[in-house]
Specification:
The protein has 11 helices and 3 strands. With 273 residues, the chain is mainly alpha-helical. Strands 1-2-3 form a 3-stranded antiparallel sheet. A hairpin with a 4-residue loop joins strand 1 and strand 2. The radius of gyration is 22 Å and the shape is elongated.
Length: 273
């Protein structure tokens, strides 16, 4: 079995497990990069012929190409996942990644959004062409801690304001209910009444683009980049995930417990929280 055939089997497995598009994209990136490495080094394409030495050379090759430590770490996790899965499924007699060590990462504090920065961002939102939408995006991200894809997947029927909740479809198609505060609800209501203009009746998503179609990840990223730049924040300090971290910090500072936080954020394990 070639490595390409092995990847195809793995992707079929992921689709059966209903993994998210983001997960498929993540593994697809490693598939392409590993393929380029094998071709560049004239290495065997048969999965059974690959060894742990080949995979270690792959990680070294990535490092020499200038890829950041986090990127190398991500590819290493993906490689371990696919080959170890293939071994469990008996597609391979043994996994070349069984003894593949993950490269060490420098432990540093990740950027976190603060209430003060959010206040500044909301002021800047007023200068944008869709101020109510940008306000609703920021308020929802910071007030609920949802992932950016979960935010974009929200439909109008998911806004359960009478119960103070929103219904979120998380990773692995796992449904959960997340509390939302009154100010965020007001921002969402104002946006829907005064700015949301769907291109046709079939558009159910809450957050829409100028064309009345569902907003994309890149669309959110570009807006946050511009908003952050306006108040002097670096790109990494105003990404969707900084709002998620900021929510978690504020939740704990205000007396919340880590077990409830785990449920709200949709983490599979307490270690992740």
């Amino acid at each position: 079995m070639t490595t390409d055939q092995l990847w195809e089997q793995f992707f079929f497995h992921l689709k059966v497990k209903r993994r998210s598009k983001t997960t498929l994209t993540y593994y697809g990136c490693t598939r392409r990069v590993l393929g380029r490495f094998l071709e560049a080094q004239n290495l065997p394409t048969e999965a059974e012929q690959l060894t742990v030495t080949h995979l270690r050379n792959f990680l070294t090759w990535l490092d020499e190409k200038g890829l950041a430590a986090g990127g190398v770490h991500g590819h290493a996790r993906a490689v371990r996942a696919v080959f170890n899965w293939a071994c469990r499924e008996e597609l391979l007699s043994s996994s070349p990644a069984r003894r593949l060590e993950l490269p060490s990462l420098v432990k540093q504090r990740m950027p976190t959004m603060t209430a003060g920065a959010v206040k500044e961002l909301l002021t800047v939102c007023k200068t944008f062409d869709q101020p109510l939408r940008e306000t609703a995006v920021i308020m929802t991200l910071f007030d609920t801690g949802v992932r950016v894809q979960e935010l974009l997947d929200l439909e109008r029927a998911d806004l359960l304001f009478e119960r103070g909740l929103i219904r979120v479809m998380g990773k692995g198609s796992k449904e959960r209910f997340v509390p939302i505060g009154s100010r965020a609800m007001q921002a969402l209501t104002a946006y829907q009444r005064r700015e949301r203009r769907p291109s046709h009746e079939g558009v159910r998503r809450v957050f829409l683009s100028h064309h009345g179609l569902p907003l994309t990840k890149s669309g959110v990223g570009i807006k946050l980049l511009k908003l952050g730049k306006a108040i002097g924040l670096a790109r990494s300090a105003c990404s969707p995930h900084t709002f998620r971290r900021g929510f978690a910090v504020e939740f704990l500072r205000n007396g919340g417990d880590v077990f409830t936080l785990q449920q709200i954020m949709g983490h599979a394990s307490l270690d992740m929280t």
